[in-house]
Amino acid sequence: MLDDNLMNYQPVIGLEVHTQLKTRSKLFCACSTEFGLPPNSNICPVCTGQPGVLPVLNKKAIEYAIRTAIALNCKIAERAIFARKNYFYPDLPKNYQISQYEMPLAEDGYLEILNAENAEISRRMQKKRIGIERVHLEEDAGKLLHAIGAQELDYSLVDFNRTGIPLLEIVSAPEIYSPEEAYIYLQTLKSILQYLEVSDCDMEKGSLRCDANVSVRPQNVASRFIGTLGIKTEIKNMNSFKALKEALTYEITRQIEVLESGEKIVQETRLWDADKGITQSMRSKEYAHDYRYFPEPDLVPLVLEKDFIEEIRKSLSELPTARKERFIKEYQLSEYDAGVLTAEKMLADYYEETINRLQITDYKLQIISKTTANWITTELLGRLNAENKTITESTVKPEDLAGLIKLIQEGIISGKIAKTVFEEMYKTGKKAEEIVKEKGLIQIADEKEIAKIVEEVLKENEPVVKEYKAGKERAIGALVGAVMKKTSGRANPQIVNKILKQKLEGEGK
Fold first, then answer.
1. What is residue 181's three-state secondary structure?
2. Which of 92, 240, 243, 348 is the most buried (most CB within 10 A)?
3. Do residues 341 and 323 touch, judged by C-beta distance below 8 A?
4. 345-363 burial code (b ≥16 CB/10 A, e <16)
């Protein structure tokens, strides 16, 4: 959070999110979009802008763009026009980018997020609606390389493999008022895009990128904001959620300090330097007219028929909010658990596949669904996050986790032993039953066998027995622990408690 002495100002933030669409070929040619191939191996005369070539529009990219626009509650245009955005940069081979300007594919939508001030309150989560000004398609630029491995170069190399990949730009209204809200907005948008299966949203690979327009405006003692929006700066080079929050926090503080010193904010583009933790001036901010937009002469206007749009609308899968509400109702999960499990589509799929393999009866639904949620969010995600892995990289598959939970429910192993078994499952990829048999971890449920161990424990712990008989009922916990230790955690805890009470109360008569 910003310092209290900065609370006389309100930050105003608008985000421009660019996401590469998950098509097999580029936006205007048949070149592959596969990531990680040798430099300049996925190029052709069309995407490198050679003389005499003509672009041909990728229909799948249009479908993905419409799918996104519908999910963001946008008004989809009946007619959209591609435009040339002219600027000169080494990674732009044509010296212009085919984009959309005056007549974009979609406008006037919104995205609902959890209010940042209430994001951690499970029962009273309030939503905030942030406007989406426009959603439009454009082609991506290439990539400049300034180093090879750890070696810094005194020249730059250009890789055009990324040139021409379909890029969807989603522009929010300036209705985000804190770095925390920006963070939640981007997380929510990423989740929707992944559920729609239009992008993998991998920020490390550059398939999800974000620029931010930031300004601050003062408020008076009546807490009413003076004037409209302040002079904004644009921040680039934020390649993670953490970087987004840190860059915005720094820039907001910087702008307020500039205003407090009596100086004026300069409209400019600034780069985020994560190593130094500061934004640095890159260039004075261009206005839209500086790009000299004009209609792309090689592409006819894009006409979007209502039947085509409705067909895409009907094909949409369940989105994060709807899935979360269903998890709460169908699996009787808390709002918090449902929110964590549905934040990513693959994680929600993992949970449902695990649940579906457990064949739960109605009266056990809430217990087992909560148990499953705990194993995934605590044990599994804890290990995956520590190793910076995703749920798709887990060595414990849904059927394996379901097998472990069944062993607990059937009383074959205890919850404590289950954690040992899970650890081995995660390391080796083996199934729970296999590990239990190999290590002889089957729970002891034979009452006669447990009774003998209980008698031994009572003899070895006479002071604790006296405490219990003197009225200190909590002392039984130490006796239970002693029994569990003797059996290496294999004794059934419920049976241990029952026999201990029988023995203690019988001896007290």
1. helix
2. 348
3. no
4. bebbebbbebbebbebeee
Round to whole Å and give the CA distance between 138 and 21. 10
Q: Tell which residue, 388, 421, 393, has the closest CA to residue 407.
A: 421
How far is it, in rounded angstroms, from Cα 64 to Cα 137? 10
Looking at residue 400, its pLDDT comes to 96
The pLDDT assigned to 227 comes to 55
Residue 123 confidence class, pLDDT cut points 50, 70, 90? very low
H/E segment holding residue 415: helix 415-428
For residue 144, give the nearest of 95, 89, 96 by alpha carbon. 89
CA 120 from chain centre, in angstroms, equals: 16
* pLDDT tens per residue across span 134-143: 999 999 999 9
What secondary structure, in 3-state letters, does 290-359 show? Answer: HHCCEECCCCCCEECCHHHHHHHHHHCCCCHHHHHHHHHHHHCCCHHHHHHHHCCHHHHHHHHHHHHCCC
Would you say 504 and 497 are in contact if contact means Cβ atoms under 8 Å apart?
no
Q: Look up residue 33 and give its two tokens.
A: 């979009």
DSSP 71-109: HTTPEEPSEE-EEEEE---TT-TTSEEEEE-SS-SEEEE
pTM over 0.90: no
Closest to 239 measured CA to CA, from 209, 196, 278? 209
b/e map of 204-238 (b: 16 or more CB within 10 Å)?
eeebbbbbbbbbbbeeeeeeeeeeeebbbbbbbbb
pLDDT at 124: 45
How many angstroms separate the CA atoms of 384 and 456, rounded?
42
The pLDDT value recorded for residue 507 is: 56
Q: What is the C-alpha separation between 162 and 209, in angstroms, rounded?
A: 14
Question: Are β-strands 278-284 and 143-148 bridged in parallel, bridged antiparallel, or unpaired?
Answer: unpaired
Structure token pair of residue 167:
């890029």
Side chain identity at residue 348, one-letter code: A
| Rounded Cα–Cα distance for residues 87 and 319 (Å) | 38
Average pLDDT over residues 436-447: 76
Which pair of tokens denotes residue 504? Answer: 């203690």
